[in-house]
């Protein structure tokens, strides 16, 4: 059975990062400095330490700057490839649809602003055991670090919605998933759509497995999150 070294990870790094302006007016979010290095350097180092070896960066806004600075990824013990949105931003789902030729039949998906110090092998094992075309990792957030958006009960995802929340939503989409390519080939290439819509549709069909993790997430999607991760990584010892 394949381990994490055999499964590529798609990193969604194409957004405009408007919440981080003015920092991101001239650089993409992946290049924002955290503890003296671009965020992507920390992200790749963490992934490599967890056993991953191949990553495809789904890039859009200022993506050429990321490719210029990180190249083939050899400096981080990773093989990096790049999938560009093209003339228009495709959204998180459309970017994954565009990147399928570089990803193969199954792959991890990670948000480009997430730093997730968990066991990626355990996530892959849960995906295999679940037998579904997709898996979402969830964390019991209770609204503490961001707004909870998942109703997770008895080991399964009952409801997921970023727009219409219910009182039963005490977990949050942790920011890491595993998917089969077939989930995205149902959509036409070049169409802009969100990964969240794909996940919500899978939940409705009972086709999205859930895996609960217990290590809190870190992110640089906001100035507060950026400051918090800066404090975590300043000693130079990632979790």
Characterise the protein shown here.
The chain has 239 residues and is α/β, with parallel strands linked by helices. It has one domain: Spore Coat Polysaccharide Biosynthesis Protein SpsA, Chain A (Alpha-Beta Complex), CATH 3.90.550. Helix content is 28%, strand content 26%. The chain contains seven helices and 13 strands. It has a seven-stranded mixed sheet, sandwiched between helices. Strand 9 and strand 10 form a beta hairpin. Helix 3 packs across helix 6. The longest helix has 13 residues. The radius of gyration is 17 Å and the shape is globular. The two termini are 27 Å apart.
Instruction: Catalogue the unreliable spans.
Output: none
Q: Indicate the CATH architecture.
A: Alpha-Beta Complex
End-to-end separation in angstroms reads 27 Å
Fraction in beta strands: 25-35%
What's the domain count? 1
The CATH superfamily is known as: Spore Coat Polysaccharide Biosynthesis Protein SpsA, Chain A
Class from secondary-structure proportions = alpha/beta
- Rg calc: 17 Å
Strand element count: 13
Mean pLDDT: 90
Shape: globular
Helix content: 25-40%
Query: What's the level 1 CATH class?
Result: Alpha Beta
- Strand line-up of the largest beta sheet: 5-4-1-6-11-8-12
How is the biggest beta sheet arranged?
7 strands, mixed
What is the N-to-C succession of helices and strands?
A: EEEHEHEHEEHEEEEHHEEH
The CATH topology, please? Spore Coat Polysaccharide Biosynthesis Protein SpsA, Chain A
How many helical stretches?
Answer: 7
